[in-house]
């Protein structure tokens, strides 16, 4: 079971992030809840630091203990996690999103 890691800088094509869902990219989750609207989160579940497992519809799922988070806000939808996923800063370089570690996780 992989625990909190350094995500470094990751690049992902916008076209690789499905509308209404998302993609796992290294230690990040990148979502596109509506066409052209992107969010990025550090992929460590705040409950135990385990990397979230997958995106299921509009839920980000941590299979370790069953926590679920919103693809739109990172907010907890189902515990045991009590805190939202940590937003990860990103910039846009044409059709690419460039994601980096949140400062409080460095």
SS strand fraction: 35-45%
- Category from helices, strands and their pairing: mainly beta
Terminal Cα separation, in Å?
Answer: 21 Å
Biggest β-sheet: strands ordered side by side in the sheet: 5-6-7-8
Strand tally: 10
Summarize the structure in words.
The chain is mainly β. The chain has no helices and 10 strands. The strands form 3 sheets. Strands 5-6-7-8 form a 4-stranded antiparallel beta sheet, with no helix packed on it. Strands 1-10-9 form a 3-stranded antiparallel beta sheet, with no helix packed on it. A 3-stranded antiparallel beta sheet has the order 2-3-4, with no helix packed on it. A hairpin with a 2-residue loop joins strand 2 and strand 3. The mean pLDDT is about 90.
What labels describe this entry?
106 residues; mainly beta; 4-stranded antiparallel β-sheet; 3-stranded antiparallel β-sheet; globular
Secondary-structure blueprint:
Layout: E1 10-13, E2 21-25, E3 28-34, E4 37-42, E5 54-56, E6 59-62, E7 67-70, E8 76-78, E9 90-93, E10 96-99
Antiparallel strand pairs: 1-10, 2-3, 3-4, 5-6, 6-7, 7-8, 9-10
